[in-house]
Amino acid sequence: MKKNWIKSLGPGLLFAGAAIGVSHLVQSTRAGADFGFGLLWALVLVNIFKYPFFQYGPRYATATGESLIDGYKKLGKGVLILYYILTFTTMFTIQAAVTIVTAGLAVNLFGITPDLTIWSIIITIISVSILLIGKYKLLDNLIKVIIVVLTVSTIIAVGTALFNTTKSYDFVQIFPKGTLEIGFLIAFLGWMPAPLDISAWHSLWAIEKQKDLKKGFDTKQAIFDFNIGYIATVFLAICFLSLGTLVMFNSGNEFSSSAGKFAQQIINLYTENLGSQTSIFIAIAAFTTMFSTTLTTLDASPRAMAKTTELLFNKTYKFNYIIWITLLAIGTVLILTLFISNMITMIKIATILSFLTAPFYAIANFMLISSKHTPKEWHPSITMKVISYLGIIFLIGFSIWYLMNL
Predict the structure, then answer these.
(1) Total domain count for the chain?
(2) CATH (domain of 395)
(3) Most buried among 77, 107, 229, 281, by the most CB within 10 A?
């Protein structure tokens, strides 16, 4: 029974694997280093307000047997075209952002060459090979190990930091002022816990899980599976913010915009608390975290674009997924070749773009789950509807506020 329960987990952990990356390792740690616990309000609120829109992905997929992308077409071809455009314009920056951080960690872990472009190419080739050879099943099994390794090492690091600290910290919440601080807040919210387009990816993974399990993967299981992954992402986001606060806040140190140097600083955050002898284990945990994000995003965007292409043109293409994953891999390497010198700027662009496009996904997902296209029994409850309305107001409000402060 226990084995079957663990086996039934999958898409929710893939969600966690995609989410626990730049938003946690980079953005949450930076938030703690720069603001202490002052942005805890933002972390909590954005996770509450984004929750329904993420959950509607697996809910809709398992209740109807089709992905959110199929549902977008039912809302109108214009909705599907807008999704296609938004995904195409953001997928390259998202992939480039996660790959550059992974490359920086690879330099620190493996050495060999300090050239981030070479490492980015190596990581991309390995990821494409895993996805084309092992497909969903390998991704599903691999992610479970990675999430456990990361969770255990992070909990130990934060616990040790709390035990060793002699400083006192307050929980006074800060509302950023000025263009730079506001820009960071929006970037922080953009990928916390993940970009909202992951909801569409999650719906595709849920359908793959249904095919994988002989007894099926029903809606209750899917929501439970998602909740496990979501709770893990929120918990670890708080851990990373705490780690940044306990080790970096008011220390006089700042994070580097160079991927290689930043990766070393992240590893140092852990080793300062756990001891230098643990550096190899921490480096492995950090690298596997970012590698899982690189792998899941490299799988998801092409899968989503392949599905959208088929729906738009009402035609099945034999090598659709392979074409899109190849295009994304080449595009990612080209972007990294041009912008490799400033990792922080690249991440900022990617995360802000994700936040500004979030209202589209929120509104589309809510409309779809509340429509005639979803079985009545799986329509959202009153509580979920209230959180959804508040979430839409939150996302639109902060987007307008950011644009007014540019």
Answers:
(1) 1
(2) 1.20.1740.10
(3) 229
